[in-house]
Design a protein that fits this description.
The structure holds two protein chains of two kinds. By secondary structure, chain A is mainly beta. Chain A contains no helices and eleven strands. Classes of the chains: A mainly beta, B mainly beta.
């Protein structure tokens, strides 16, 4: 059975940083395209970042330059680091895979940016 | 960036109705469009990929079609479990982009 489980969310002050983790079971992170997709409260879905099986990384303009997506292949975990947090980064962050259309999703990690 | 314009944003319908949701891409993305269903408090669920291919376990009342840069999700006979939000997504090029969503409500 495929399972994706995000962790690392919480309440963070503007200007701070976060590191989200997504622990995956049932398929291999390093063999698939993996993404982070976020959803602000009451709003639609926004893809923010992805990493290919070859290690190429992709970012939405909204997070480019202040974010890093990576994976630990030995642990089958996907990560997302976001710096210089803004109020508008408040959202439920989902990890999703495999491929560039998203068959598998986690339950989401809530990130709230507020002073 | 490729913009996906989804319509309508809200749709009121009754059980048994045939409903259609449309996404128009700002440039060619054929056939790389997916459709998702999302219920409140839950992660999205893949319904359709590659414009018209039904994802595993998805009921056959859901179908996808395309005409140029316009993509349509059709539910042939709306069921109580189908009242939810729906999103299109293009995966032709980066950044991957979603439509704004359609909320299907009970009439």
């Amino acid at each position: 059975e495929v399972q994706l489980a995000e962790s690392g969310g919480g309440l963070i002050q503007p200007g701070g940083s976060l590191r989200l983790s997504c622990s995956v079971s049932g398929f291999t992170v390093s063999s698939n395209f993996m993404s982070w997709v976020r959803q602000a409260p009451g709003k639609g879905l926004e893809w923010v970042s992805g990493i290919s099986s070859g290690g190429s990384t992709y970012y939405a303009d909204s997070v480019k330059g202040r974010s890093t997506i990576s994976s630990d292949n030995s642990k089958n975990i996907l990560y997302f680091q976001l710096n210089s947090l803004r109020v508008e980064d408040t959202a439920l962050y989902y990890c999703a895979g495999d491929g560039t259309n998203f068959l598998h999703w986690g339950q989401g990690a809530l990130v709230t940016v507020s002073s | 960036d490729i913009h996906m314009t989804q319509s309508p944003s809200t749709l009121s319908a009754s059980v048994g109705d045939r409903v259609a949701i449309t996404c128009r891409a700002s440039q060619s993305v054929t056939p790389w469009v997916a459709w998702y269903q999302q219920k409140p408090g839950k992660a999205p669920n893949l319904l359709i990929y590659k414009a018209s291919s039904l994802a595993g376990g998805v009921p056959s009342r859901f179908s996808g079609s395309e005409s140029g840069t316009e993509f349509t999700l059709t539910i042939s006979s709306l069921q109580p479990d189908d009242f939810a939000s729906y999103y299109c997504q293009q995966y032709s090029s980066f950044p991957l982009t979603f439509g704004g969503g359609t909320k299907v409500e009970i009439k």
